[in-house]
Design a protein that fits this description.
The complex is a heterodimer of chains A (119) and B (374). A six-stranded antiparallel sheet of chain A has the order 1-2-3-9-8-5. Chain A has a three-stranded antiparallel sheet with strand order 4-6-7. By secondary structure, chain A is an alpha+beta fold. Chain A has one domain: Beta Barrel (OB fold (Dihydrolipoamide Acetyltransferase, E2P)). In chain A, 39% of the residues are buried. In chain A, strand 6 and strand 7 form a beta hairpin. Chain A is globular and about 35 Å long. With 374 residues, chain B is an alpha+beta fold. In chain B, the strands form four sheets. A six-stranded mixed sheet of chain B has the order 10-11-12-9-3-13. Chain B has a six-stranded antiparallel barrel with strand order 14-17-16-15-18-19. Classes of the chains: A alpha+beta (119), B alpha+beta (374). At the A-B interface, strand 4 of A face helix 2 of B.
């Protein structure tokens, strides 16, 4: 698993990249009450704000970690946003994307580096 | 960064795992480990303990209550002289333009008037009272007492365990009661829409009292985050957001707090700052009103979201002044201002969120029925 400085995790799975947010991000956000996911088949560029996530406290955006295409989204977290707090690394993944070159993942932090990053 | 002021219960909050944030110059608990949602629900179903010691507590004295009350009536459009002994009433300081300088609680404590004002406004309020009440009235800022609020359906039972006298109080009664060995100024009131008490306790006794209350299995500590979502669901204004120096009490829907005796034709009509505008609006109505708003769909609409009459085109007709997710409602709730012709409950307007207009229904407040012991 790889991690971004925006507290997203990325996992290679069946030739796709699964993206979610970290425990650290979910606890910083507090109780998540609303998630808006991108449309399937959307082409996205790294840095595009493609997810809106709202907690009781505030709204935040999640940006595309890589250039690619959204191929699947997790409707379960739209129906039950609280899952993002319960299981951010597992059931509460956000979207899956297809990217041209999986080696782009290597630019991101591994778990030890991320742990050091969040302190 | 300027140094944040610390309140008597600071160390207790840290020990309880609070996330501390700056608020009105104080280091305050915004939430504890349970989080805003659970803290909110706990207050609605059991009892929540809030530290609101940042608020301003002021004692006004003169030659008896009547003299003080008469002087205060020059600053607020409220029937202070007619406030019964050991009773409390909501009010607001108005300005010459008919706007609101701050909202406050006023309590008749026999030989003096006790007022509680907002933390962010207290310096201004104190100056306003010192300048406006005249030399006969002393304005004593109480800086040696903490202020706690115990709110929720089990608040009475919990506090009765320390002094059964609380059971004799009804909504907006005040009393001096011994709690955990300390003389406390207690009122049956709060900012959540639930039954409960606000307790002014000597600073040196506050931590022991708070710990004793928290020892009760029904009581959990509640931060400012849940305090805000609770008051929003209860339809209560937050000063500086839902009301401010430019909003009149009539626009804000606070006419219930202006008693007949201070209105046109009343025995003590007018005589407060901005009376000409406020009395005229009481007669003729205001052109805009504070309303409850239920964003349709699930996305919260927060302060600053602009409201439109139609789903496309046109200029904004209003603005959201407070908005969040309402944990008890189970969806987004908000309040804001709309022109009077769009302010009737059931009217649909549109809030612009991330460039898209979403329907918002004007709704009655409170969003959650009040649970006071009248």
């Amino acid at each position: 698993m790889k991690f971004t400085e925006d507290h997203e995790w990325l996992r290679a799975e069946d030739g796709l990249v699964v993206v979610g947010i970290t425990e650290h991000a979910s606890s910083q956000l507090g109780d998540v009450v609303f998630v808006e996911l991108p449309e399937i088949d959307t082409k996205v560029a790294k840095g595009d704000e493609i997810v809106v996530i709202e907690s009781v406290k505030a709204a935040s955006d999640i940006s595309a970690p890589l250039d690619g295409e959204i191929v699947e989204v997790n409707a379960a977290i739209v129906d039950e946003p609280g899952k993002v707090n319960e299981d951010p690394l597992g059931d509460a993944w956000f979207f899956k994307m297809k990217i041209d070159d999986m080696s782009a993942l290597d630019d991101y932090m591994d778990e030890d580096a991320y742990k050091a990053f969040v302190g | 960064m300027t140094d944040l002021l610390r309140l008597p219960l600071h160390d207790l909050h840290v020990e309880l795992g609070a996330k501390m944030v700056p608020f009105a110059g104080y280091d305050m608990p915004v939430q504890y480990s349970a989080g805003v949602m659970k803290e909110h629900q706990h207050t609605r179903t059991r009892a929540g303990l809030f530290d609101v010691s940042h608020m301003g507590q002021v004692v006004l004295r003169g030659d008896g209550y009547e003299q003080v009350a008469r002087a205060v009536e020059a600053l607020v459009p409220v029937n202070v002289m007619g406030l019964g002994e050991n009773r409390q009433r909501y009010g607001f300081f108005t300005n010459d333009d008919g706007g609101i300088e701050d909202d406050l609680m006023l309590a008749n404590r026999g030989d003096h008037l006790f007022v509680v004002v907002n933390a962010a406004c207290k310096d201004g309020d104190i100056a306003l009272m010192r300048a406006g009440l005249g030399p006969e009235i002393s304005v004593d800022v109480i800086d040696d007492r903490a202020l706690l609020a115990l709110q929720g359906p089990e608040a009475e039972a919990v506090l009765a365990g320390l002094n059964s006298g609380v059971c004799d109080m009804r909504f907006m009664d005040v009393a001096t009661l011994e709690l955990d060995g300390a003389a406390c100024w207690v009122s049956r009131s709060g900012y959540t829409g639930e039954d409960g008490f606000e307790i002014s306790a000597p600073s040196e006794a506050a931590e022991a009292l708070a710990r004793r209350l928290l020892d009760h299995e029904a009581v959990a500590p509640i931060g400012l985050g849940a305090r805000d979502s609770l008051r929003l669901e209860a339809g209560l204004c937050l000063y500086g957001h839902d009301i401010d120096t430019a909003t009149s009490p009539v626009e804000a829907g606070l006419t219930w707090a202006i008693q007949k005796v201070r209105r046109s034709g009343g025995a003590r009509a007018g005589g407060f700052p901005g009376a000409s505008r406020i009395l005229q609006e009481l007669e003729e109505g205001a052109s805009r009103l504070r309303v409850g708003l239920l964003p349709q769909g699930r996305a919260p609409m927060r302060e600053g979201v602009e409201l439109f009459a139609a789903d496309e085109g046109g200029e904004p007709v209003g603005r959201i002044t407070s908005g969040s997710f309402g944990p008890t409602v189970g969806g987004p709730v908000a309040m804001g201002y709309l022109p009077v012709e769009l302010a009737a409950p059931g009217t649909t307007v549109f809030g612009e969120l991330r460039g898209k207009r979403q329907p918002v229904e004007v709704a009655q407040m409170p969003f959650v029925p009040a649970n006071f012991k009248r």
